[in-house]
Amino acid sequence: MTQSGQDVRDGKVGYQEREAVAVFDSEAALNAAVDALMQYGLRQEDLSVLAPSEKLSSSNPTTALEDKDDAARAAYVTQDSRTEGLAALTGGPALVTGLGAALVAGTVGLALIPTLAVTVGGAFATGSVGFVLSRIFGRKHAEAIRQQLANGGLLLWVHAPDSKDDAKILEILTQNGGRDAHVHVVHRNWGVDEVPFSTDQPDPLLKL
Length: 208
Fold this sequence. Notes:
The chain is α+β, with helices and mostly antiparallel strands. It has helices spanning about 25-40, 80-105, 115-150, 165-175; strands spanning about 5-10, 10-25, 45-50, 75, 155-160, 180-190. The chain starts with 6 loop residues before the first strand and ends in an 18-residue tail after the last strand. It comes from Kaistia terrae. This is DUF1269 domain-containing protein.
């Protein structure tokens, strides 16, 4: 144990976090609760949901994961951000490629018309790939929501370090359809394994 009360074992620092949690029976209700929480002053980074990677079943429903320290989580993404991201996947690369072609045509002239033809073709191809990706990501999100609803509901965790906000946070969660809204303390570890991408190979060519 350190003087600050943190538990250091195997190179990891253990600590505790206070948070509120509730279960929702629809994505619309969860989003409404998030909107109200953010209007109250919470930040998007204070919110997390159950990750699609969590394996759910009748013996392991979402409600059994409310207070589990090791439940797989994902950052909450607003509906607007998700829509904008899918739109960018669909049209963004093609738009950039098309703008690049227009700039070349305006600054260099007719000498690069064959190149422009290839670039425009690439824009259409890239846009098609983006459309396919947006469909895939959209379906994955919908399937994750369906599975969670079929196995108990949608979980929303709210980082709540200051107990003075507890009553208001719980009120917002409950008023927007949250079930079993309560505050708990979770135990976390911080170490090399928790650093994002710490084990990833940044350059796939280095594997060759």
